[in-house]
Automatic annotation (TrEMBL):
Record keyword Transport present: no
SUPFAM superfamilies assigned: P-loop containing nucleoside triphosphate hydrolases
Record-given protein name: Deoxyguanosine kinase
EC number(s) from the headed UniProt entry: 2.7.1.113
One protein family per Pfam: dNK
Every Deoxynucleoside kinase domain range: 7-204
Top-level lineage group: Bacteria
InterPro entries xref list: DCK/DGK, Deoxyribonucleoside_kinase, DNK_dom, P-loop_NTPase
Classification via CDD domains: dNK
PANTHER family reported for this sequence: DEOXYGUANOSINE KINASE, DEOXYNUCLEOSIDE KINASE
Any one Gene Ontology molecular-function term assigned to this protein's record: deoxyguanosine kinase activity
Keywords tagged on the record: Kinase, Transferase
The organism of origin for this protein: Guptibacillus hwajinpoensis
Amino acid sequence: MNQTPFIAVEGPIGVGKTSLSRALSAHYQFELFQEIVEENPFLGKFYDDIEEWSFQTEMFFLSHRYKQLEEMDKKYLSNQLPVISDYHIFKNKIFAQQTLSDKHFSKYMKIYDILTEGMPEPNVIIYLNASLETLLNRISQRGRQIEKSIDPAYLERLSSDYERFMQEFEAHHPDIPVLRFNGDEMDFVSNQQDLHTIFQTLEQTLKEGDPVK
């Protein structure tokens, strides 16, 4: 395991990745990397017509996430400075497989494999999941204009894809711990005890890996 903590928070849209990442960064004073969402000029069109705008949307996300990962490695991890991220680039494969045609997905993965070769992987993943009802409620509460046209069926498929992907990830990466938390049962934004539970679990995991403090 990479000894410098690189903690990635993952899960479907609306599950609370950014809120938890910010709380972790503030608590541990780790550098925070957040994904670019609303800056994607294709995203609004994507939610209106997934088939038409999926390739442009996914390529934009891939290039920006690759650039952030490159910066993270160069400026922080290579200098033993720990980081928190509210995503990891592997999520691109989940979204791309869900939205792209077979022809576009094949081209996309060739580019993905080239860009991510040799890039650092997280040494801990915090995986948040929740029911469709909870996800839709949280998306509504945060009120992003760009997300108002999200199809619940798309979100439900995405959640299922995330779960399947994480199971495969755990099977193929036994050296990278995956800490699972259920958003239906925990509210780490409003309940400090829930947040403290996550802190304790993470600290124990990092201690077992003996990361650099």
